[in-house]
Amino acid sequence: DQQVKQNSPSLSVQEGRISILNCDYTNSMFDYFLWYKKYPAEGPTFLISISSIKDKNEDGRFTVFLNKSAKHLSLHIVPSQPGDSAVYFCAATRSNFGNEKLTFGTGTRLTIIP
Amino acid sequence: ETGVTQSPTHLIKTRGQQVTLRCSSQSGHNTVSWYQQALGQGPQFIFQYYREEENGRGNFPPRFSGLQFPNYSSELNVNALELDDSALYLCASTLTGWPGELFFGEGSRLTVL
What we know:
The structure holds 2 protein chains of 2 kinds. Chain A has no helices and 11 strands. Chain A has strands at 4-5, 10-14, 19-25, 32-38, 45-51, 56-59, 62-67, 72-77, 86-93, 103-104, 108-113.
C-alpha cells in the first residue's frame, strides 16, 4: 500500500526554467510533509517542509505547496540550476505519532539541462 | 559538528548469514532511525531508537533488530539474510521532538548473494 506516491519517475528541465515535482498521499492522518534531495552515493538531505496548517512554504528558490483537499503537494524550484539535478523524495508523517517515522515516495529524478 | 556516519559502506553476504551495520549519530542527537532503500524505491522505515529503547517499528520481521548505546550510536542487525534484503540501509538521527528534519548518513549498501 503506497501511501505516498510520486508518479513521475523522471523530469528534465532547462536551466533557468521552473521545475515542478508532484506528490500525492492517501493517508489523511498525515499532517507534516517534507522534501528530501539525494545525490548518488550520499544520504538524503532535507530540503523544505510544510505543516498541514499552511498551504505554502518558501525558502529561497524552493517553494512547497500543499492542497489538503486533493491530498497533493508540489515542490517548485525556480530558477532551476544544474546543481539541482538529483533524486527528490517526498515524505509524510503524523506529527503527534510519538516518533519520527517518515513515509517516503519512490522519488523523482530531476535532470537540469544546461 | 560531525554528521551521521555509517559503516561499512559496502558489504557482500550470502543467504542465511547475519550482518551488523553501525551508525554514529550527529553530535547532540538522541534519536536514531533506520531505513531500508531497495533499488528504485524510496526509503522504508525499519525502526527508531530513543534512550536505548525501540520507539516505533515499521513492517519488518523480527530478524531485523537493533540497539542504541548510551552515546546514542546504534546498530542494525539482520539475521538469516534473504536475497530481498539487498538494499541501501540508511541511518538517520535527530533531536526528539517534532517537527524536525532527519539527518541521514551515506548508507551501507548490502548485497546478498
